[in-house]
Design a protein that fits this description.
Layout (H helix, E strand, L loop, with lengths): L2 H18 L13 H25 L14 H15 L1
Length: about 90
């Protein structure tokens, strides 16, 4: 799977999971418990941040690094290596 498709897939999941976090004023069909949705949103947020940094590096652009959040260079390097091998 191409890195751009993974980013799109995770972004679509975020749109689905974010309303599921509400515990009191939720309207709609409950698919997940609020705690599970909250954990999934936090995990996806972290992965999306690292994927965006890796995507910028793969496009040979200056990555827009987050200033207020911790990000791991090791994880970014792993993602760059993983998606470079898949595209080749």
């Amino acid at each position: 799977m191409i890195i751009k498709d993974v980013i799109k897939k995770l972004a679509a999941e975020q749109v689905f999971y974010k309303p599921q976090r509400k515990s009191v004023y939720f309207t709609g069909d409950r698919i997940l418990k609020p705690s599970e949705a909250t954990a999934k949103v936090a995990t996806n947020k972290n992965l999306l941040m690292h994927l965006h940094i890796a995507y910028d590096i793969l496009r040979k652009k200056q990555p827009n690094l987050p200033k207020k959040q911790y990000w791991s260079q090791v994880q970014v390097d792993f993602l760059v290596k993983k998606y470079t091998e898949q595209e080749a």
